[in-house]
Specification:
Strand content: under 5%
Largest sheet: none
Oligomer: single chain
Radius of gyration: 18 Å
Number of helices: 4
Order of helices and strands: HHHH
Helix content: 25-40%
């Protein structure tokens, strides 16, 4: 395929493991973000507040915004995004955790 025939759309996959050292601080920040969202309906707000208080992974998901990851990248515009978070058991020395695991051809690791 020539340069003119390639797609202008790029799927960017990012996987991160985040260590939460202060769950109260994280939850408080997520609750503040939810409280500042004037567009969120009351019923959704109540559900969101309950979710972030029960699960730090939900709190983190409310604070991480894919738009923030690419908003300053010249020549790009975020077209679509989805993300999720989950609590995991993490052992960096485990052979099950291989950040270089091949999950697709053409992946660029920076």
């Amino acid at each position: 395929m020539s340069g003119d025939e390639t797609s202008r759309f790029v799927r960017l996959r990012v996987e991160m493991v985040v260590e939460v050292g202060d769950t109260e601080k994280l939850t408080g920040a997520a609750l503040a973000r939810i409280g500042e969202d004037e567009q969120m309906p009351g019923e959704e707000r109540a559900h969101a507040e309950a979710a972030v208080q029960e699960d730090v992974a939900e709190a983190l998901a409310y604070l991480v915004d894919p738009f923030d990851l690419v908003s300053q990248v010249p020549g790009t515009e975020l077209t679509q995004a989805s993300w999720s978070s989950e609590s995991i058991d993490y052992d960096p020395d485990s052979p099950d955790w291989d950040p270089d695991e091949d999950d697709g051809e053409g992946d660029d690791v920076l």
